[in-house]
Amino acid sequence: MDIWQAIILAIVEGLTEFLPVSSTGHMIIASSLMGINELPITKIFEVNIQFGAILSVVVLYWRRFLQGLDFYKKLLVAFIPAAVIGFALNDFIDAMLESVAVVAIMLVVGGVVLLYVDKWFKNATEDRISYKNALIIGLAQCVAMIPGVSRSAASIIGGMAQGINRKAAAEFSFFLAVPTMLAAATYKLITDMLGLKISDLVKFDWVKIQNSFEVIRPNDLKLLLIGNFVAFIVAMIAIRFFISILTRYGFKLFGYYRIALGVALLALLAMGIDLKV
To answer: What are residue 126's DSSP bridge partners?
Structure first.
């Protein structure tokens, strides 16, 4: 992977991670078009640069993260469903992720849903989130374990379905992304990328831990640092853009975009182009 390819992937990650458009679908297209979708470093890179995107939320909303313990309790309540279900169904989720067709179809289905969300929940005006709200949002987020379903869209809709307004639901979705993405990215990095087991870390098997990092070369480390920095900057811009668009125009624009992207993926598959997640 060259530096310019790393930068493009990082831009794609930063732009799409917090928007309701599915970062997975965009990563498939970007890496395939650049011909790097089968490189071992690509999967490592795509997982690792999520840390830069996560940091953007903390920096943008740092004051909110200095709130009282109640804020973190609600995040924990919302995070638990994804932690339990994600760990239990990890192999099944990975199997679904191998199907680009599933990603494409869910992009279209999700796009259609976004076309009507604003009409369905036009009376959603509440701006405070209770523990019950947090739990239901956390359960809604689990739908995004189906590849092609946007995590942000699922959690925002989960909030709006309970009467929470778009802005408050979107911001809570950003906050919830921090523990959710941090846990998922860390788990994938340890188990899939480095080939370690959680028991190796618990037992502190230093030989296995040290050997696992040999899969990442010095040049790859440079790419990871550049990628995280770019993803961090772009994600901050994307979050501001998303809140502005969402507040003024709602979800329709994103719905049409998802449908177009899903149809494009299906067309590429029909043409026999080999796409990899």
So the answer is: 164
- Residue identified by tokens 């992720």 is 97
Instruction: Provide φ and ψ at 164, rounded to 5°.
Output: -85, 135
How far is C-alpha 204 from the chain's CA centre? 29
Does residue 275 lie in a domain region? no
The structure tokens listed for 127 are 């701006």
Which residues, at least 6 apart from 21, have a Cβ–Cβ distance to it below 8 Å?
150, 254, 257, 258, 261
**Residue indicated by tokens 């043409």:** 271
Which residues, 6+ apart, have CB-to-CB distance to 176 below 8 Å? Answer: 75, 78, 79, 137, 138, 141, 155
How many Å apart are CA 23 and CA 12, to the nearest integer? 8
Length of the chain (residues): 277
Domain with 85, as residue range(s), is 3-270
In a domain, 277, yes or no: no
Closest residue by Cα to residue 23 from 152, 112, 111: 152
To the question of pTM greater than 0.90 for the whole model, the response is no
Closest to 127 in 3D by CA, of 171, 83, 76? 171
Coil, strand or helix at 63:
coil
Phi, psi angle pair for 194, to nearest 5°: -95, -10
C-alpha to C-alpha distance for 259 and 159, rounded to whole angstroms? 23
How many domains does the chain divide into? 1
- In the chain, the amino acid numbered 118 is D
- pLDDT means per 10 residues in the chain (277 residues)? 88 87 79 77 78 88 82 92 82 69 88 89 84 93 84 89 88 88 77 58 52 61 87 90 81 90 86 69
CA dihedral over 262, 266, 267, 269, signed as positive or negative: positive
Q: Is residue 276 part of a domain?
A: no
